[in-house]
Amino acid sequence: MRVSAIRPVHVKYLFKNLQFIRFQSVPSLAHFNPYYADSFSDESDSDTENNIICVEKSNSNINVVELSSNGVIEILNNLKKEPIFALSFFYQLKERGFLHDVWTYMEIIKILCYWGMNRKLVCLLSEVIKLEKEHFSLQVMDLLEAMVKGIKSEDLSSLGRAIDALIKAYVSLGMFDEAIDILFKTKRRVVGPCLLSCNFLINRLVEHEKVDMAVEIYKQLKWLGQSPNVYTYGIVIKAYCRKGSFEEAVHVFREMEEAGVTPNVFTYTAYVQGLCEHGRSDLGYEVLRALKGENVPIDVYGYTVVIRGFVKEKKLKEAEIVLVDMENEGLVPDEYSYGGALIQGYCKSRNIMKALAVHNEMATKGIKTNCVMVSSILQCLCQIGMAPEAVDQYKNFKDLGVLLDEIAYNVVIDALCKMGNLNEAVWLLDEMKAKKMVLDIVHYTTLINGYCLQGKMFDALSLFKEMKEKGLQPDLITYNVLVGGFSRSGLAEDAFLLLDDMRGLGLIPGTATHNLIIEGLCLGRKVKETEMYLYRLEDKSIENYSAMVNGYCESDNATKAYKLFVMLFKEGRYVKKTSRLKLLSTLCLEGEYD
């Protein structure tokens, strides 16, 4: 077909009618002979015929013929002033089976670099890396080499941006060795990654506990002549503090001084945070106060770090002192200072009165509560046996318009189950479904446990089946709850069937599972079945025997419990303290203790 016999179509028109395109990829040519749009000429009929998109109208039907790598490059070049269109075109070709090669990728990368579309560039390169891992013919290093050779000297900034994106793509995929390889390969060339990308890589290494690797990169960069900035130093200080090397961290401060770089809030806070994370919050607070004395600006986060440190060390009074000190300095505490640290600290120590007092104080200062604080308070109330108060608090928070998450709902469902109010618990679960909230095995297991506590095993089993129908795989806890429920209800056969079901899923019944069956069957007055179960149990532990002592006591078999205790005692094995106390109490009540 001659070129004169074909009428070219405008790129935008073609782009809008992409569904009519019939594609043909010519990767072998494009890999070794890059061909750009500005190289087309009327004198090269054969090349033009093979590489340009053309449309022939016949009977008002549009037929698009052969699209090759060079044709794609030409279209992308024409779309370079409209990067969104160019990127959409690139991806639509890919979706329709076109095999992009080094040169088509390089063309779209050049466009993204020119327009500074860094996030999209990282996503694109991440896809290339994934394809390479899947044994795709396109190699990342081939692409990098083509970029280095193909981008003109005046476009070095674009090359640098592409290298930065490639490093971030590797880091985002957790491929740190490859990211480091790119870093030092390109650093020795005319252009390398910017300091921002180096900082990004070092910081992510620290966050992934690859501290030694991060420090080594910092040293190598300095050896290569890279001048760290204040954030580089801050990250390295954080790295040393993360591993507890505080002397090395102080040495970095000296390096900063020698380089004429003034430490900022980030570098100082990194040091203070390191001290607090290693149980030296008192020293961290001293450093904070010393810095304040030298008029170094310390922000809210710096104080919050120390508050969290004291909370972690269960020094809640000291944490409150820091909070007051922060306010005296004219800083306004935020929800992280209160709820993210202090309120959660009091809840973990089960001091609900203090937690509520701090929460009320926070509210009076106009700081909004959040679902994390609410969940902590509700959970603390349940843990100290105040389930009705937890439900009341939940209703108060809901009336105030506080956004409650799945965790808060689960705590309240658990509280209602413990109160025996299963109807309201089911209603809450239905409310979660109506709100399109994500229900997991924890929510289902909580309500299943509620049914089991009430002996409603049919309802428990129905909910268990619903959970599996939703695609949620029951875990060991779910099975333990059901096994315990069936055992307490005297349904030994059903409990044993569940054990078989567990093993079929690869879940191995543990000591807790066996204890639930032993104590549950005894409660269900199935003493003989329990004795047989214990007898057949392989690798019986002292915990299993302790559960048997408890079971005998629960089934009013104090004599058998005592005989088992004496037998174990003579063998030099001692049941748990709780079991001994339970046995003593049962013997006293039955008048058999002398």
Automatic annotation (TrEMBL):
SUPFAM superfamilies on file: HCP-like (SSF81901)
Any single Pfam family the record assigns to this protein: PPR
Alphabetized UniProt keyword annotations: Repeat
Positions of PPR repeats: 229-263, 264-298, 299-333, 405-439, 440-474, 475-509
Keyword check for Nucleotidyltransferase: no
InterPro entries found in the cross-reference section: PPR-containing_protein (IPR050667), PPR_rpt (IPR002885), TPR-like_helical_dom_sf (IPR011990)
Classification via PANTHER family: MEMBRANE-ASSOCIATED SALT-INDUCIBLE PROTEIN-LIKE (PTHR47939), OS03G0201400 PROTEIN (PTHR47939:SF13)
Family of this protein: Belongs to the PPR family. P subfamily.
Protein name (Swiss-Prot/TrEMBL): Pentatricopeptide repeat-containing protein
